[in-house]
What does this fold into?
Amino acid sequence: MGKTIIISDEAIWNSNYIDAMKVAMMAYLIEHELGHAYKAADDLYGEGIYDKHCLDEKCVMQQVVSVSELAQFARKNFLVRKKPGCFCNHCKKRFRRNYLSA
It folds into this structure.
């Protein structure tokens, strides 16, 4: 399909979080990077590190810049809600459209 994603899990697995949290963090990271591959947030927001990211705090396409921020998002959106697939409606529509056209 012409999409390549390289993910390093070293910072996650070397952190002091329990394994369930590490798995939730990896789930977020994988979903987020798949979102980039299918341009889920390509037309959204800002400059610099926020370019191609969503500002919706519940969307998996928000920018996360540290392991602790990743853990906060994973705790809030994967462990508490127990609901993967945390794209906001806008990013979900773009992901589906780009995925189906790939």
Summary: Residues 19-37 form the longest helix (19 residues). The chain has a mean pLDDT of 82. DSSP finds four helices and no strands in the chain. The helical segments are 10-13, 19-37, 67-80, 89-101.
